[in-house]
Design brief:
This protein has 270 residues and is α+β, with helices and mostly antiparallel strands. 36% of the residues lie in helices and 26% in strands. It is built from ten helices and 13 strands. Strand 12 (227-233) and strand 13 (237-242) form a beta hairpin.
């Protein structure tokens, strides 16, 4: 079996190289020939592999590959829903518990959102969490204590506001593959309300509760994910869902390698 690992041409660094090479080695151990190709190369490629493991967020490219009849994991729709935090929230609204959230109204350009922020603050209270709709590793996520704090972070990019959940600066991440939780970790950050490891969080192995497992599986099914990392606050609230979570951190914390499990799920699906 031959596949392609799709990565981003413009996102470079040792962290990403380690992850990509690790997935390729996992594929080799399963007699799968997995080639790394970036989104720029794939745009012009005429190759038609058995599948593409899409470790990127270039939704348009993922859909282009699907239009060519190539199985893509995760699908372009699932990636799109997970990449945009507003779309994630709306897809899961009424399906699983989430922090109270207000998605900013759409504007074609940078504008004065003062009235919106004041009304949202009445609903959410302070402090509240400001999130740009696009971003990874806890970036573009800020804790705000006033209207002016929120306004200072607004640019021309879409954003949402969310109630602050007091959680002891920790969350749990469940890696779901094919409807099963294959590994889980607790992340704690004593110096930042964001528990992301990139921001200084420390991860330890974790055994999820039945409720955590059920809402994580339901979230992945609703978003159409074959595999995904689900972040949960206070044992009950979905914070974010990742279509291509950084599984090296998970492996370092738990000793469980999700790469072959993801590849096996792909093999069984196609």
């Amino acid at each position: 079996m031959e596949g392609i690992l799709a990565v981003n041409a413009y996102l470079k660094g040792e962290k990403f190289n380690i992850l990509h090479n690790h997935i390729v080695k996992a594929a080799e151990s399963m007699d799968i020939m997995l080639k790394i190709k970036n989104n720029q190369e794939l745009l012009f490629s005429k190759d038609k592999p058995d599948f593409v493991l899409f470790w990127d967020k270039d939704v348009n490219l993922a859909r282009h590959l699907e239009n060519r009849g190539i199985p893509v994991f995760n699908s372009s729709r699932a990636i799109e829903l997970c990449d945009d935090k507003a779309k994630t929230y709306l897809a899961l609204e009424g399906v699983v518990p989430q922090p109270k959230t207000v998605v900013a109204p759409f504007s074609f350009f940078k504008t004065d959102y003062t009235v919106f922020v004041e009304k949202a603050a009445e609903e959410l209270g302070f402090p509240l969490v400001f999130k740009e709709c696009f971003g990874s590793f806890g970036e573009q996520v800020y804790l705000c204590g006033s209207v002016n704090d929120v306004l200072s972070y607004i640019s021309d990019k879409p954003f949402l506001l969310q109630e602050y959940i007091e959680n002891g600066n920790e969350d749990v991440r469940l890696e779901i593959v094919g409807g099963k939780c294959v590994a889980a970790m607790k992340r704690t950050n004593l110096h930042d309300f964001r528990s992301n490891i990139t921001n200084g969080g420390v991860a330890t192995p974790y055994t999820p509760t039945n409720d955590e497992f059920n809402i994580a599986v339901r979230a992945c099914a609703t978003l159409g994910l074959d595999f995904g990392g689900v972040d949960i606050l206070n044992h009950s609230l979905i914070c974010e869902v990742n279509s291509n979570a950084h599984i090296i951190n998970l492996m370092n914390a738990t000793g469980i390698d999700a790469a072959p499990l993801i590849l096996q799920q792909i093999v069984e699906t196609i």
